[in-house]
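Supplementary Methods, section 5.1.

A reviewer requested that the exact input to the structure prediction be made available. We therefore reproduce it here, unchanged from the version used in the analyses.
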Amino acid sequence: MDLALVAAVIVALLLIGAVAFIAVGHAVGATESMPAQIIIDVEESVEFCAQALPDHVTASLSYDDLRRLLRLHLEWIQAYHWAPASRDATPIVFEQFDPVAYVMERCHVIHLEVTAEEAAAVIQAHSDYLQVAGALHIDDPVDVEADLSAMGLLDSASPQTPMLSTTEPGDEEPADPAE
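The structure derived from this sequence is encoded token-by-token as follows.
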């Protein structure tokens, strides 16, 4: 009887080990497929942006104001953008919200007195920092247009036809007889 108990314990341990091995293997595989994680140093980003800003902006903003604006810009990035689940994920094209308008609205809520020009300068400097750090990739608009033209997406749009139509195919409005 003791031999049967020992055999049952050994089988149970092997089963537990196999399940754990499969679970850990799945987690490792999922982690390996994720894009590289970038860690941003707050003090480094504040210093970078302070040095990159024009003199008239640095004359009116304190380091605390700059830090708060950078946090608001990161809040906008987090609220209106996504991080791909894998390196092979295709990009999603969507209409962007204006970061300056968002930051200015949030500045009003938190009672931070800055002008739209100052906010735009901080956002540009912060975007530059995030690109240098490797945390943000912004395609050159010329390259994006070239890519779209190579795909044939721009050829079908005429100056009178919007790129994003609100009508379904087959639901075209009849031609205006006055034309």
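The two ends are 97 Å apart (CA to CA). These observations are discussed further in the main text.
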